[in-house]
Amino acid sequence: MLLTHAHIDHSGVLPYLYKNGFNGNIFATGATHQLCNIMLLDSAHIQETEAEWKNRKAQRAGSYQVEPLYTTKDALGALSLFKSVSYGEKVQVAEGITAVYIDAGHILGSSSILVEVSEEGVSRKILFSGDIGSLDQPLINDPVCPGGADYVLIEGTYGDRLHNKRADYAKLLAEIFERTFDQGGNVVMPAFAVGRTQEILYFIRQIKERNLVKGHGDFPVYVDSPLAIEATQVFSKHTYGYYDEEAMALIKAGVNPLSFSGLKVSLTSDESKLINFDKTPKVILSASGMCEAGRIRHHLKHNLWRPECAVVFSGYQAYGTLGRALLEGAEKVKLFGDEIEVKSSIINMEGISAHADKNELLKWLSCLSYEPVSVFVVHAEDSVADSFAAAIREEKGFSASAPFLKEEFDLAANLVVKPGELPEKKAAAPKRVSPAFEALLRSGERLLSLIRKNQGLANKSAARFADEVNALIKKWDD
To answer: Are strands 26-29 and 82-85 parallel, antiparallel or unpaired?
Structure first.
């Protein structure tokens, strides 16, 4: 198995596959391997904890027991199959199949993979882009030109848009910090444990170095996420071959790009709780990035109701998440059973993105040493994939398409063997809906999510919940 990058959005598939009999090699860069060491165990612990919680509720209700999707034992088993590889190293995956990892510049250890397959005297080079990074990110290298390939599978996440010009994020953050500290408040920053937390630490080091926050001395910065703390240690160990010139210059000068005076970490839950008892204005970095789980929810509970505080988002917030609700102006939110009034400033730091935009994706394709037979656009919403495939055809002159689900393609013969299934939503363009109706749809999604979270609810409570939902349906269905 070839693991393309360290973002590992769906890393749980690895222990799940191990649990179900997979025992082959898992190839990954050294940094990805080390990040998986902490992320897979963390993910397995969450699976076990949630199953234990559901089973306690189910036992009280006389309901059925559930099993975790995978366990710590499964995660350790999957990790035992990992084989670390370096960028540029040719790996023999199986008979007739080799692979070379190429720095994709997305996050630490991220890779594009050039696979060469030989079968019955026919050889083809297939390039899997993985997630391609945006240019000029702090810390890590820009994407490396991938060479040549017969076929390219390229991600199209932002294939229909352009990023704004990169701002001076250190200066923007400093302005937010100083304004909030002047009011006596805290700055709470939900951040993904891998990638975004380290990027923000890099900016805060610049803020302190440039003395951009006036009147608050060596203000404290807390990283309150065990996973983020461990991930930051991995970032600090994997520098050579991964960091860009600016970051490497700091290291050669004896400066840790991710450390500074006033930086504090909290590993235990007791340490986490003490953060909000300290009245000193501070920055609190905590996970999860979309506020759906983790310690960030405790910090929001303590700070959202305070008008002197600020909550700063620096990453995408999906529909149906607490983070998205806050960005869209929610006046009240529920946290740990309590209704919290939102009085703090809610700030969105737009423009920080680890994904390449349309022009950067096209630039990456321009690095190919010869024209591919065909380019397939993947990892994008349907309309975006179609739009980007059209842009590749028009601007690069390459044959390009966005395959549908279950489409089969013979790479040796260069033809479609089986057409894909056209999604229903693509059969006809959807009617434009009002923002109010979009908000209603999101509310429905949150209600369905809440219902699913309450699996194992006591029969009496579940029946009452169902009656309330049915009453609401009846009111609007008449």
So the answer is: parallel
Q: What span, in angstroms and rounded, lies between the C-alpha atoms of 297 and 324?
A: 14
Query: Minimal CA–CA distance to 289: which of 198, 168, 165, 156?
Result: 198
Q: Which residues of 396-416 are buried (b: 16+ CB within 10 A; e: fewer)?
A: bebbbbbbeeeeebebeeeee
Among the listed residues 381, 392, 391, 351, the one whose alpha carbon sits nearest the alpha carbon of residue 157: 381
pLDDT at 284 over 70: yes
Range list of β-strands (E), 151-282? 151-155, 187-190, 221-224, 263-265
Query: 229, 223 in Cβ contact below 8 A?
Result: yes
Given this model, what pLDDT does residue 435 score?
A: 57
Q: Give the pair of three-digit tokens for residue 100.
A: 């070379």
363: buried, middle or exposed (CB in 10 Å: 19+, 13-18, 0-12)?
middle
CA–CA dist 101, 152 (Å, integer): 14
The residue among 292, 282, 302 whose CA lies nearest residue 344 is 302
Helix (H, G, I), strand (E, B) or coil at 274: helix
**Angle (CA) 376 421 362, round 5°:** 20
**86 upstream amide cis, omega within 30 of 0:** no
What is the tens place of the pLDDT at every residue in 180-225?
999 999 999 998 888 889 999 999 999 999 999 999 989 999 999 8
Is pTM beyond 0.85? Reply is: no
Residue 173, pLDDT > 90, answer: yes
Helix (H, G, I), strand (E, B) or coil at 161: coil
| Per-residue model confidence (pLDDT) at position 427 | 42
Mean pLDDT of all residues belonging to the chain:
88
Instruction: Please tell me whether residue 31 adopts helix, strand or coil conformation.
Output: helix
Element containing residue 28 per DSSP (H, E): strand 26-29
Phi first, then psi: give them for residue 400, nearest 5 degrees.
-145, 145
